[in-house]
Amino acid sequence: MANLPVLPSLTQERACGSCSLCCRLLPVPQLQKDAGRWCPDCRPGAARGGCGIHETRPDVCRAFNCQWVQGRGEAGWRPDLSGVLVCGLADLATGRALVLYLDRLPRRLQHGRLPLNRAGEWALLYWATQALALGVALVAYAPLDGLVFRQAVGVAGLAAEQVDPETWHWETARDGGRV
Question: Residue 142 in contact with residue 35, Cβ under 8 Å?
Answer without folding.
Answer: no
